[in-house]
Every structure is written in C-alpha cells, then in structure tokens.
Design brief:
Largest sheet: 5 strands, parallel
Strand content: 15-25%
Shape: extended
Radius of gyration: 40 Å
Length: about 1000
C-alpha cells in the first residue's frame, strides 16, 4: 500500500537518486505520454536486479503522480534503463507496470536469489500483460494497453465508458469507449486512426458497439478532432457478408471452425452450388489421409444452415488428400435457399430491383477488396439514402476515402445496375464520425425531369455520438427546471418596471438640459456657467443637425443631376463597333433599353426556347430584362477615384462600380462572377438571381466583375491584391476557358496592369505592411534598424489635424466628394443673375465619352450596374465571316505554344490556397463554345485543359463544371464563335442556378 508521500516540490531526479543511491548527475528522467523513462548510469553499469529492487520498493511507498505537475497525465508504466557512463546505448532495460508492482518484486527477488546461489532459475511470477487484462474489458487496462503504442509519440491516453442506446435495439443499452488522447501538439488523425483501430479491434471486446477517439492539445479547452471506430466483432462482420453469399467470407468462417479438427477448407461457387474442398491442414509430406467425412459434415452443415447464404441453393462437400486430384468422398447438401423463395434471388438481382441492403453490401464489397484489412480496421462503410430520383451514397472510413478512390467505382457500379426510377447519383466522402462530408461528386445517369439543387441528406448513423461527447459551454443553453411560472412572471414584471423608470428619467433629463423645460420645484440653484455650457452644447447640436440636413439635400440634388447627365451621355455614345453588324431591329431594341422602364424580352406565352424539331426557336428567345447602362457613372467614378489607374480602363471602371456598390450596400455581394470577356458576356446576374429565387434562394446579390482579356494572373491579382478580404463574397464563379490558362502566349493584360501606378501602389502598400509588422519590439535594437529606413518628412501637427478632419468629414458627407459638381451647378445658376452677364459661360464637359472612345472596347460601352454586358447579336456564320477572318487553332495567338504549367498555373494555385484559407467557395465554369470554333487543334487543347482541372477537384472548396460542349450548334446563343450573347447568358444562368453540385446557400 502506498503510505509515504513526498512533497510536490521534490523532483523526480532527486527521488530516483534517493531510492537507488545513484548520484543525481547519473540520473535522467523523461515523461512521454503515460510513460516515465528513467536512465541510471555510473562509472560501472548499475546492477540490474539490485537497482530494480530498490526502485520497486520506492514505487510501492510513493505515488509518482504526486511528483509531477497537475497537468501531466497519469503514469501507467515505468521504463528503467542502465548503462555505463560514456556509452550511447543501455546495457539493460526493464518495463514496470505500476498496477503489478508486487509481481515485479517477486520476480526481482527470485532473480537476486538466483544470482546469489549462482543457479539458473527460469521459474518465477508471471507478469500478466496489459493486453490480457484489456480483453476482459477493464478500462484502466485498455488505457495502459493503448499507451504502449502511443506513448512513444508523446500522446497520453485516458479511457472512459459511456452508456448509450444500441443501434440495433433502441431499448437495449450498449457501451461506448471514450478514448481521450492528450499531447503537446496536434497529431494528424491518420497517424493514430488505423493503429488505435487495429489494437482495439484485436482485443475483440464484447459489450461495446464503438469507440470514439477525442484528440486534444494540452492546455486547450476544445478538442482538436474526433474519430469513430466501429467495434463490431470480426465474426459478426463475416456472418453479415456470408449471409449475402460472399464466398470469401464463408470460406473464412469454415476455416476457423474446422481449424480445431486440423482440416483446411477451399471454396468455389458455380452457378447456385457452393463447392467445399476439405484437405488435411498440416501435411508437409502429403501423406496424411483425407479428413473424416462425419467430422467434416457435422461441423460444416449446421454452420451453413445457420448462415443461410443468399442465392446458394446447395453445397457439394469433398474430402481428399493433398496429393490426389480425385476426392476420397463426396456429399451433397441442400441449403435453406432451396426451400425459401426469398433467399433464391441473388444480391446483384436484388440490387437491380433497388433493394438498398443489397446495394450497400455490394458497394462495401467493391470498396473493401482486402477482407483482412476490413476486419482489422472496419474498412470503408457505406450509407445509402434515396430521395426521389436521386441515390445519395456516403462513404466513410477512419481516413476519409479520396474522391478518385471511390467516386468512379461507385458511379460506374450504379450505372451498370440501371435501377428503375434512378436518374442521378450523388457520392460523398467523410471521416468516420464526422457529420458533414469532406467532398461530394455528382453524376446524372439520364435526362432528369426536375433539376433542383439537392441538399446533402442527413447520414446520422455514425454521428449520433457527437452531441454526447463534450458539452460546449458557449453554445449550450442554460436551463432552469427549478423556476416556476410565477417566479418567471415576477422577474419579467420587475425588468419591465425598471426599464420604464430608467426611460422616464432619461427623457426628463434630456428635456431639462435643453432649457425649454424646468422643474416645478427646483431643489438647488444651478450654476450659471453650467447653464451657459449646456446652452452652447444644445445650439451646437442644432447647428450640426442643420448642416447634416443641408448636406443630405445637396447630395440628393447632385445624384439627381448626375443621373440625368448619365442618360444624356449614353445618348451621345456612338455605335459600339464597326465590326459588330447589328440589324435594324436589334438597334431599335437597344435604343429602347435606355428608357426608364425596363423592357423584358421573355416570351409572354412561356414557350420553350426549342421548337418541335429540337432546334432553337430563332424568333422568340427568352432573356432577362435589359437594365440601365452604367457607362457614364463608371467613367465619372473612375475619374474621381483616389486609386491610381491600372492601365486597363475597363478594370478601373468595373472596380469603381464595385466600390460604389460596396459603399451603398455596406457589404460585399453574395456571389462574384470573374473571368475574361466570356464571363462578362456569359453570366447574367439578374437571370441568375431570379432563377435562384425560384429555387428558394431569395435576395441573392450578384455582381459580374468580368474583364476583357483577363487571365489567371489577372484574376489572382484582382482577388488577392486589388480587393480587400472584407470586400470579397463567400462564393466566386470563375467563368472562362483554356485560353486564360495558356502560359505560352504573352499575357498583355497582366503586363499592362503590372506596369501601372495602381499596381505599384498595391505593392508599396504590401511592403509598408510587412515593414510595420517587422519592426523589432526590442528597444535596444530598434534604433539601428530605423536609421536604415528613409527619413520621413516632419509634418506640422496642425496640418495633420486639418487633414484628418477633412478626411473624416469627407467620409461622413454625402456631397463633399462631389464638390466640383456643386461648383459647376452654382456657376450655372449664377449666370442668370443680372450682374454676371459680362462673364463667359462655363461649358459643361459632354465629350468625355467621345474623347475616351479611342482606347476602349465595345464591351464597356454597354455594361450595366451589375457589371454585365448584354449583347443581342446572334452569331450567323454565313454573315460573320464576311467581316471577320476565319482563324484556325494553329494560327490563333490565344493558343500559341499552348502549355498549362507556368505563371498562370502558379496564379491558379494561389487562388485555390487563398479561397481555402478565407472559406470562399470557388466554382470554375468552362463556358460553352461553338463547333465552328472547336476545330481539331482547339479540341485537343480543350481536352488537355479539362484533364488539368480535374486534378484539382480534390480540393474541398473547389468545384469544376464543364459546359464547353453544351451547345455546339446553337448559334443563336452566341454573339461570335466563342462568346455568348444575352440569350445564351440567360440560359447559362438558369442552368447554374439549378446545378445540384454548386452549394448555393440561403441568406
């Protein structure tokens, strides 16, 4: 019994030195997980049994846990080493289990007697292993057993039992093992998962349905991760598969049953008959006789009848020698499937008919080809849910199965089944015990009559334990069952009464401070100075209120004036381009779009866009209503923006529109569309928002930030450098194609941006941030480093204060930023005064658009306030190539020296990493192309591009949707061979809205 307790301040080294008599310089200790390692060294190697005897006696009298701090986990075992000083390896090592100290002492005493008598005595007390004790279900023994394998990793183990309802019977109570792993670092789940699972399943514990590993970093409150281990015994797993007629499982069961009779078994299935060959188990000389017939039949037949394998009607049992090819005896047995019609149908036929248990068995068998691995770790488990015409399949394992490992096998198998009523399959992967999937994959097996976004179904079979592990105090509501209804009513009345009293006092005090009211019975005379100060404050507040109202009125008048001028400017804009031949009807349609009332082009009869022959109805194509153009507003905003130009007028104006949108709505949009001109023309925010609203996702704010000529580098620069993280949405749709990723061509757009003053300012801002973060906190070292920096001009404190006040007022004022327009308006009004006739009139700047047209493209002239370019031009090869040359892919500069590795690839990887770190969903849409554009050269490059993007589908936040071959011959949806018009953009937006793979979220 432990009777002597040393003081906590006594170190382990001093305690070992006192117990063994070895100098403290010869003692070294180390705590690793639940293990205490003690190294004893001296000039001559310490005697093993003598040192152990002294140390064991000290361990009997001392609780070693009192020698460590409170944060150190319990010590389960002590490893003692002895070596000679100067040596690198110990001469002896002995493991001591603290729960078996008496047995260790008996063994040491017998060893000491043997040395004294110079006798070799091998007998002694047997040390029971932790594995033997753990098989009996002892919790402490299980913890010690696991610590033998985890302590060398620095992981301490503690085990508890948690009773829970059985998954087979809701009334029965089963036990769940809670395994708490604590360490000074966060070990990866894959490091512990399979090791712990194999060790636990090797124990073959009875009465436990599963175990939960909870990993926690020492000192942290919340667990780092959780993992579920299925403790279903291997025998039960084998019987489940054998019940479905799995030959390998049946052979394994028969082998284990006949091993005691020294009989080996081999099986094969032909049609509906199971052939079982019995041979001697241990016969290296091949002289043993064939197994006894009666013994073999008595062991095999009852077992087969108990299993009742599916679709196996009979069994032929053979007994033979190893060397002989002909059997010595044969017997034929009928199985239960021959008498019960429900057992006649095979698992594959049941799966064809849609039987879910049969599908689950076949999928688990497909995903677990190694039976030994499944029995050791639990393998990959399959959960299946059918919702309408979709089959949702969840695959979970100790280590989350990869998408490439699972998705292709599962979808190919489901496709081969051809289940009636199933037109699509959705596959998910997760780690055992997690609630949400890590990845998902979808495949439509045919034309679906109803395409709506499907939510991931609840696969709660392996996540029931999550709510019963550790209670989160911050999220858990506090319940008070002891409170009565009367006590609650009294509490509410008191709160309401106090609120009324406080409100009355505040209103009374406010009225008195205004000096418009006074108390009926003043108790004391107030100080006249105080009254003067209060009067000044009141009049100051009134003055500020009047100034604020005047500022609002000026802002309103100015916005109305700018709006009218924008309309005038739009009417002054010349036609888009001589290259775009627009019919008279299309010109009229675009002209009417400038009116204040939006015009919709949707078919009033709701007719389909396709005629009876399956071709596009060219007369009435549905499209979203045309919105007011933002050309003049974008030009004015870009001209007054404090941000220097990026040498790309469209980027400057799109950025100005986006900044204005952020300022008005005080938040970023829900979805941001980025890419080149294919995104600018190809995704309609209005149509997408409307289609999402029809699916139940209302009020989704969308902005199109498409830029002509944008490559992966341009998009990466825009998202990671130009825009702040707070200005980014939670979903980005990147609509583009292979041209944006070609590293062989010259990136003209990005090169112009990189040489711009705006880009230099961004880089300078980044360097300033880095330098600010890099200033040393050591005061002694700081002056030397600061001296090396360029000297900063001395700024007058009054000038700095004045600049700060001006900036603050500019941020609050609605008219300060537009003071130049206010001056112009006032000058116009002053011209009508009698004394102002002698001054020349100020001419308004109306030629801004005309002067700027030389360096712009046709697209920016028609961008609306959502950043979208709606073009009504329809691609007609017969007339298009009369004005434009037909360029093949071999001579297309966009595909010059086509390669996907280089700067564009680096930019794409940076985008993936950035969106992952900021929890932003990135959806890449490969936009449609026409068959005129996809010649053999471009088709080859497009295939390479698709294979390139498929390599990135393993990222959890990245989704790839390939629509390049959606409408190869639907020319009415295109404005040219590679760009959509507003009708194609409308259809693409609707298709994206109902895409089941895109994770749209409700606001």
């Amino acid at each position: 019994m432990k009777t002597v307790l040393l003081e906590r301040q006594t170190s382990l080294v001093q305690w070992v030195s006192q117990a063994t008599g070895i100098n403290t310089f010869g003692v070294k200790v180390r705590l690793l997980g639940n293990d205490l390692h003690i190294l004893c060294e001296s000039v001559e190697c310490p005697q093993r049994w003598q040192t152990l005897s002294e140390l064991l006696q000290a361990l009997q009298q001392t609780d070693v846990d009192t020698l460590t701090n409170d944060e150190q986990p319990s010590i389960y075992q002590v490893l003692v080493y002895g070596r000679k000083k100067g040596e690198h390896r110990p001469e002896w090592c002995h493991r001591v289990y603290l729960n078996q100290l008496e047995r260790h002492l008996e063994q040491v005493e017998q060893a000491l007697l043997a040395e004294a008598e110079t006798l070799t005595n091998s007998s002694g007390s047997l040390i029971v292993s932790n594995e033997s004790l753990a098989r009996q279900g002892d919790v402490e023994a299980i913890a010690r057993y696991l610590s033998e394998y985890l302590s060398h990793l620095g992981v301490a183990v503690q085990v508890k039992i948690h009773p829970c309802q059985s998954k087979d019977n809701s009334q029965a109570i089963a036990n769940r093992l809670l395994i708490f792993c604590q360490s000074s670092y966060s070990p990866d789940p894959s490091l512990l998962a399979e090791t712990v699972a194999q060790k636990l399943r090797h124990l073959k514990l009875s009465g436990y349905q599963d175990a939960v590993i909870i990993s926690q970093v020492r000192g942290e409150i919340e667990p780092d991760w959780r993992l579920r281990i299925d403790l279903t015994p291997p025998e039960v797993m084998l019987k489940e598969w054998a019940r479905w007629g799995d030959v390998q499982a049946i052979a394994r069961i028969l082998t284990e049953e006949l091993l005691g009779f020294k009989v080996a078994v081999q099986t094969s299935l032909k049609e509906s008959t199971l052939h079982i060959f019995c041979t001697p188990a241990f016969d290296p000389l091949e002289t043993s006789p064939a197994p006894d017939k009666e013994t073999a039949l008595e062991a095999i037949v009852p077992l087969l009848e108990t299993i009742a394998p599916q679709a196996i009607l009979s069994a032929a049992i053979y007994g033979q020698k190893i060397a002989d090819k002909q059997p010595v005896w044969i017997d034929w047995v009928s199985l239960p499937a021959s008498q019960h019609p429900a057992l006649v149908t095979s698992a594959l036929d049941l799966a064809h008919a849609g039987d879910q248990p049969a599908i689950i068995f076949l999928l688990e068998r497909l995903l677990n080809p190694d039976l030994d691995w499944r029995l050791k770790t639990g393998g990959i488990r399959v959960l299946l849910v059918r919702k309408e015409d979709l089959l949702h399949i969840m695959c979970d394992a100790l280590i989350c199965p990869t998408r490439h490992q699972v998705s292709s096998k599962v979808t190919q198998f489901i496709r081969q089944l051809k289940i009636s009523g199933i037109t699509g399959v959705r596959v998910y992967g997760r780690r055992a015990g997690d609630k949400e999937p890590v990845w998902h994959y979808g495949l439509d097996l045919g034309e679906r009559s109803r395409l709506v976004p499907e939510a991931t179904p609840e696969f709660a079979a392996t996540s029931e334990y999550v709510s019963s592990l550790i209670t989160n105090a911050t999220n858990e509501p506090i319940l008070r069952p002891d409170l009565t209804k009367e006590e609650v009513k009294t509490f509410v009345k008191e709160v309401a009464k106090n609120w009324l009293t406080n409100t009355n006092q505040k209103i009374r005090k406010l009225l008195l401070n205004s000096q418009l009211f006074t108390t009926s019975n003043p108790e004391i005379d107030q100080n006249p100075d105080d009254q003067g100060i209060r009067s000044g404050v009141i009049w100051l507040a009134l003055g500020l209120l009047l100034a604020f109202q005047s500022d609002l009125m000026l802002g309103y008048v100015l916005s109305y004036t700018v709006k009218n001028s924008a309309k005038v400017t739009n009417n002054l804009v010349p036609p888009i381009s001589s290259q775009s031949q627009i019919s008279i009807a299309e010109v009229n349609e675009q002209t009417t779009a400038f009116s204040t009332q939006p015009i919709t082009t949707e078919n009033p009869n709701n007719q389909s866009a396709f005629n009876d022959s399956g071709f596009i109805n060219g007369n009435n194509l549905p499209a979203a209503p045309l919105k007011e153009k933002a050309t003049a507003t974008a030009i004015l905003l870009a001209a007054r923006s404090p941000m220097p130009s990026f040498n790309a007028r469209q980027l400057d104006e799109q950025l100005a529109l986006y900044k204005q949108r952020l300022a008005l709505k005080k938040r970023p949009p829900d979805v941001l569309i980025i890419g080149s001109s294919r995104a600018l023309r190809g995704v309609d925010p209005v149509a997408l928002s409307k289609a999402l609203a029809a699916q139940g996702y209302r009020n989704i704010d969308i902005f199109n930030f498409g830029i002509n000529g944008a490559t992966a580098q341009v998009v990466d620069c825009l998202i990671r450098q130009v825009l702040e993280p707070a200005e980014l949405p939670k979903m980005i749709i990147w609509a583009d194609g292979s041209r944006a990723f070609n590293n062989g061509r010259e990136d003209i757009t990005f090169n112009a941006i990189a040489a711009s003053p705006g880009y230099k300012q961004i880089l300078q801002k980044a360097r300033t941030t880095v330098k600010t973060d890099a200033i040393p906190q050591n005061k002694e070292d700081a002056p030397e480093k600061i001296i090396s920096q360029p000297e900063v001009e001395n700024i007058n404190i009054y000038e700095a204060t004045n600049d700060w006040l001006n900036q603050s007022v500019a941020n609050l004022s609605a008219s300060y930023k537009n003071r130049e327009q206010i001056k112009i308006i006032l000058q116009k009004q002053l011209q009508h005064l009698p004394f102002n006739h002698q001054h020349p009139q100020v001419k308004p700047i109306t030629n801004l658009t005309k002067n700027s047209e030389a360096d712009t493209t046709s697209s920016i002239q028609g961008v609306d306030f959502d950043g979208f370019l709606p073009l009504s031009i329809r691609f007609n090869p017969a007339t298009y190539y009369q004005n434009h040359p037909r360029v093949s892919g071999s001579y297309d500069n966009d595909y010059k020296s086509f390669q996907l590795t280089g700067k564009q690839d680096e930019a794409f990887n940076s985008m993936l990493e950035f969106t992952k770190n900021n929890n932003i969903s990135l959806i890449f849409v490969n936009m449609p192309l026409t068959s005129d554009y996809l010649d053999p050269v471009r088709t080859k490059y497009e295939q390479q591009f698709q294979e390139y993007l498929l390599n990135f589908t393993g990222h959890s936040n990245f989704i790839y949707r390939d629509l390049s071959q959606l409408w190869p011959t639907a020319n009415d949806y295109f404005s040219d061979p590679s760009h959509l018009n507003r009708y194609g953009a409308y259809e693409i937006s609707k298709k994206l809205a109902v895409d089941p793979i895109i994770p749209w979220t409700k606001k």
